[in-house]
Amino acid sequence: VGVTVTVPARVGEAVALGMAVEAELAQGLSWMGHNEAVRLTLLLERLGLRTRIKVSMARVMGAMRGDKKFVGGKMRFALAGPLGRCRVTDRVTETVLLRVLRSRLAR
Q1: Global pTM?
Q2: Structural contact between residues 60 and 66, judged by C-beta atoms closer than 8 angstroms
Q3: Which H or E run contains 88?
Q4: pLDDT tens per residue, range 52-90
Q5: 17 vs 27: CA distance, rounded Å
Q6: CA dist., res. 83 & res. 11, Å (int)
Q7: Burial (CB count <10 Å: 0-12, 13-18, 19+), residue 79
Q8: How far is Cα 99 from Cα 104, in angstroms, rounded to an integer?
Q9: What b/e string do you get for 35-50 counting C-beta neighbours within 10 Å, with b at 16 or more?
């Protein structure tokens, strides 16, 4: 269990982090292209929002398990697809989720 060093200071930063993670997850499911995922992340960063934070994996996973989208032992995600489309899915494996989170949680 790690110690939280920095957490998003504003709701917008937490939303931006979630959008960056979900873009990577959507890309992994071939619902969003690589260029779109990178473009979204760069746009968020240009707006001054963080897409990486220092926080423990345990804290993030605990928060996710307490979220309204965690149902029946599974986390559901609203993932972007082609422009203007979104899908709700529980097909994201914990292995994939942990890999993507590790890339967004600064060390």
Answers
A1: 0.80
A2: no
A3: strand 86-89
A4: 888 888 888 888 888 888 888 888 998 988 777 899 999
A5: 16
A6: 24
A7: buried
A8: 9
A9: ebbeebbeebeeeebb
